[in-house]
Structures are given as structure tokens and as C-alpha cells.
Design a protein that fits this description.
Layout (H helix, E strand, L loop, with lengths): L14 H13 L10 E4 L10 H22 L7 E4 H8 L6 E3 L13 E5 L5 E5 L3 H11 L5 H9 L3 H10 L4 E3 L3 H6 L1 H7 L5 E9 L14 E5 L4 H11 L3 E6 L4 H4 L10 E5 L5 H12 L3 E4 L13 H7 L4 E6 L14 H7 L2 H11 L1 H4 L2 E3 L2 E3 L11 H24 L1 E8 H10 L23 E3 L2 E5 L4 E3 L31 E2 L1
Parallel strand pairs: 1-2, 8-9, 8-11, 9-10, 11-12, 12-15
Antiparallel strand pairs: 2-18, 3-17, 4-5, 5-6, 7-15, 7-19, 13-14, 16-17
Length: 505
């Protein structure tokens, strides 16, 4: 059964969630009054100096507003939006919700040994992300050590933090020094990100098409070209698939995520193909896919997609009216705009991890142990948020940006490019004030399931958690299982007749 939210919930019960929702929606150019359509429910907060629960709920609310905005532009009167704060936070928990395996109910391999912290010669902390083999090789080569955590720890303990970070970043590794909020604010990259909008939107080419919205499945017939990586942007395309879009995920052969194999919840509802767009044949296929896509979501490092042969202006010319949504880690201006990053690394850089530890040590009898990404820990070092808020939250905001882009094209005929970053999402979270007091709750391993069906995920039985978001009249579900890399061909599975009438304006 879907989650039923109490109809009597007052709209002003959760002012922080509503304020964050309004701020993000305004940044996307949305109607100022629309956030009042959202009804929040679910009391309580996690143990954190930041309003993580309100933030999680707000990002789902903005995604819901993206849906209702699209309905409105298509001439459909939308109903209310309901978001349960607690359930939203559970969806931000890891392993990647909404799967719960039936055969082994314990938590699954999320804390790989290559996501770890080390201390440097000047007693600072450095976070290393080396889960992917390529990143691990770069890390080991830059330090000149063998594959062992002890040898890495010894090498980093002999280097000052700034020198170690510079050396590793130049080698293409993914690391971050723990900085305080004040240090990040004073850092050139922190200052640059602070000046960036939450969502930088630029309108592009005009197109005419005959696509007609189906209210119960708002993205039915919409094609999404997915060239995303890791967690955040794939979360966005997963939600677009839940709204009926055909999502074609493209990976280059031999990429880390292909080599690691397996399927996971983040691939639900998508077709998954391999394509080497650096070859002449692959580039031609990529261009063909792009020319018939509606939405293009990508999250490679800045400039990587351009290097395939077509920059953003050329992409807009190849497919007039294209809705392009782009993510990077550290923002689009400043010295780190091309730097590799992950959720936990951005938490380290931006002061979040340092602030969690500082806050906890103010009153350890009330705030310890901490839940840091699913593990109970003390505050003896910088600690991460209790959930993967930057990745997951930004993912739902990217989905909202894509929906806004489709709505904009319905209204004006214009395509658009929207750019967002994990670092700007971090700034949004750290600027929000967590209300004092309130009931604290811990993250359970269980919550209401969407229905009684058992699903297959990589050969393992699983069940689906209920969505924390409800948009009246728009059921959210996936009609495809998660696929292994290369299970599908790099082509669209449908041939919507509306594109025969597509012409540039």
C-alpha cells in the first residue's frame, strides 16, 4: 500500500522544509506560489547540526513541483503534493533505496575499504575515494606504495595535507582535506561556489514538436539520453524513468562501473548500453541518439562530454529544443571547477564533516554516538552526515530541472541547459538553520513497502519501499528491471511518430 499522509497536516508545520523548497524552486524559475501546494508530514530530526530531514523532504517536494509544473503547462490542473519527511530521509539512507533484499536483510557493501580517512603529517584529516580501480591505481602510483591501507596511511602521515592533496589531485586521484566552514568560505573555490546559483539555466534553440502529455504518466514518450556516473545524476534519471520516460544509459566499454559489473537499484527502469563515443562509428551513433533525444543528462567532469566532438552549442543545434541537465562536483567557476569529487569528498572540502564533529563534541552526552553514513562512530575526527544528502538531494533536484526544461519547451518551444553541482547543494544545506530541540529519530531498516510484489534485482529477490513523494493522479513506478551493462543496444526502443513532425523554429 502507498504511504497515506494525514490530510489534516498544517502547511506551516515544517517551516524549514518549506523555506528550502521555496528557495530551490525560485532558483529554477518556478512560480512563487507553487510551493504552497506541498503538504509535509513526519515529525522528528536526525542527530546532526544541519536540517538533513527537512532538506531531504524539500528535494522530493521540488521534484513533485517539477511534475505539477509540467502538468500545468500541458493544460492539466494538478493536484496536491505530499511528502513524508521521515520516509524521504530513509530514501536518502544507504544502501541505495528503495531496494530491500529479502534473502539477506543486513546492510550491503556500502562501506568499501577504499572510502577511508587518513591523517597527514600536520595532523589534518584527508578523505580518499578509491573504490573504482582507476582511482585506486592513480592513488597508489602517486604515493609510490603497494595496494594496502597501512602503506597508504604511512605515506600520507609523512606528507603535509596541502602537499599530499596537490600531488594526488594532479595524479588524477579523488581526495579531499577536511576544512572548516570558515576555511571553505575563505577558499577561492568556496567563494566562487557561493556566487553561483543553485541552478544555472540558459535557454537555447527553438523546436516544434507534437508530443502530447499523458497526465497519469507525464514523461511517457519522452526519451532521456543518460551519460551519468556514480550516484547523484543516475538518481535523477531513475526518477525520470519512474515518471514513464524511456531512459537509455550509455557507458563506455571498459569503464570502471562496467568492469565492476552487477546491477543495483540505481539502474531501475533504464536500458543500459555500451558505446565508445571516441571512435568514428561510436561518435556517429552518439550524434544520432542525441538528435532524437528529448532530455540529455550527464555528469562527467567539466569538458569531458564536449571532448566527444560536440560542445553544448553544437548539441543544441543537433537537437533543437534539447533539454540538457548537467552536474559536476565542485561548481562551474573557480579553480576547482574541473576537479573530481564525490559526495563525501565535497562534505570534507566544504566544512560539513568538520562541523558535524565540532557540533557533536559540544555536548557528547547528548549527541554521541553519531550515525555517519550508516555506522555508529564517535566524533574524534571529521564525520559525514548520517545520510548521503548531497548525492541524493542533488539527484532529485536534477530531475526537477529536467521536468522544468520540458515544461519550458512546451510553453516557449525553447530548449535549455541547466547546470548544478554538489558543492552548491552543500552551500544550500549549510546555510539552512536546524531548529533547536525536537524529537530525534534513528533510521530504521524497514518502512512501508509499495506493494506485496517480489522483484528481481540481479538474480536476488527484493521488495520496493514506498515513495515518500505523492503527486495526486501520478503514480510513480518502474516498468523495467535494472539491467547489466550492455544488456541493451545503443538505440531507442520506441519510434514515437511525433518526431516525424519535429522541425527547427
Amino acid at each position: 500500500m502507498p504511504i497515506m499522509l494525514k490530510p489534516e497536516v498544517r502547511r506551516d508545520n515544517f517551516p524549514i522544509a518549506r523555506a528550502i523548497t521555496s528557495e530551490i524552486w525560485a532558483a529554477m524559475g518556478g512560480d512563487e506560489a507553487a510551493p504552497q501546494r506541498v503538504a509535509f508530514a513526519g515529525e522528528g530530526d536526525l542527530r546532526s547540526p544541519f536540517p538533513v530531514v527537512d532538506f531531504a523532504a524539500a528535494t522530493f517536494a521540488v521534484a513533485g513541483l517539477g511534475v505539477t509544473n509540467l502538468l500545468e503547462k500541458a493544460g492539466v490542473s494538478p493536484g496536491p503534493i505530499k511528502v513524508d519527511r521521515r520516509h524521504a530521509t530513509i530514501w536518502f539512507d544507504i544502501p541505495l533505496a528503495p531496494t530491500r533484499f529479502i534473502d539477506t536483510p543486513e546492510r550491503h557493501g556500502i562501506h568499501a575499504k577504499w572510502m577511508v580517512d587518513f591523517q597527514t603529517a600536520d595532523d589534518r584529516w584527508m578523505r580518499v575515494q578509491a573504490t573504482f580501480p582507476t582511482l585506486r591505481r592513480r592513488l597508489l602510483a602517486a604515493l609510490g606504495v603497494s595496494e594496502g591501507l597501512d602503506s597508504i596511511a604511512a605515506a600520507l602521515r609523512a606528507l603535509p595535507a596541502e602537499e599530499a592533496e596537490r600531488r594526488l589531485i594532479e595524479a588524477g586521484a579523488a581526495v579531499a582535506i577536511a576544512r572548516s566552514l570558515a576555511e571553505w568560505e575563505a577558499h577561492p573555490q568556496g567563494a566562487a561556489v557561493a556566487q553561483e546559483p543553485i541552478a544555472a539555466v540558459r535557454e537555447t534553440s527553438v523546436a516544434k514538436d507534437q508530443w502530447k502529455l499523458v497526465a497519469e504518466r507525464p514523461l511517457h514518450g519522452v526519451r532521456v539520453l543518460d551519460m551519468t556516473r556514480v550516484v547523484s545524476a543516475p538518481m535523477a534519471t531513475r526518477l525520470l524513468a519512474a515518471l514513464g520516460a524511456e531512459v537509455l544509459r550509455i557507458d563506455p566499454p571498459g569503464a570502471d562501473e562496467v568492469a565492476l559489473g552487477g546491477v543495483n537499484d540505481i539502474m531501475l527502469g533504464k536500458r543500459r548500453a555500451l558505446l565508445d563515443a571516441r571512435t568514428e562509428e561510436g561518435r556517429a551513433r552518439y550524434k544520432e541518439l542525441l538528435s532524437t533525444a528529448d532530455i540529455f543528462v550527464h555528469s562527467y567532469r567539466a569538458g569531458a562530454i564536449d571532448s566527444l566532438g560536440f560542445d553544448e552549442n553544437e548539441r543544441a543545434a543537433i537537437r533543437p529544443g534539447l533539454v540538457e541537465v548537467v552536474l559536476n562536483a565542485y561548481g562551474w567557476t573557480g579553480p576547482w571547477r574541473g576537479r573530481r569529487g564525490f559526495d563525501t569528498l565535497v562534505q570534507y572540502s566544504s566544512g560539513i564533516a568538520d562541523e558535524v564533529s565540532r557540533w557533536a563534541n559540544e555536548a557528547p552526552e547528548r549527541r554521541l554516538p553519531l550515525n555517519a553514513l550508516g555506522r555508529l562512530v564517535d566524533a574524534s575526527r571529521p564525520r559525514h552526515l548520517p545520510v548521503e544528502a548531497l548525492d541524493f538531494g542533488t539527484g532529485y533536484l536534477l530531475a526537477a530541472a529536467a521536468l522544468r526544461g520540458v515544461a519550458r519547451r512546451l510553453e516557449t518551444g525553447r530548449g535549455s541547459i541547466t547546470k548544478m553541482s554538489l558543492a552548491r547543494t552543500a552551500a544550500l544545506l549549510t546555510s539552512a538553520v536546524r531548529p533547536a530541540g525536537g524529537v530525534e529519530f534513528t533510521l530504521p531498516h524497514d518502512m512501508p513497502f509499495a506493494d506485496d510484489r517480489v522483484w528481481d534485482l540481479g538474480g536476488r529477490p527484493s521488495r520496493r519501499l514506498a515513495f515518500p513523494l505523492q503527486v495526486e493522479g501520478v503514480p510513480l513506478f518502474w516498468d523495467r528491471p535494472a539491467e547489466l551493462p550492455g544488456s541493451s543496444s545503443p538505440s531507442w526502443s520506441t519510434t514515437p511518430p511525433r518526431w516525424a513532425a519535429f522541425e527547427a523554429g
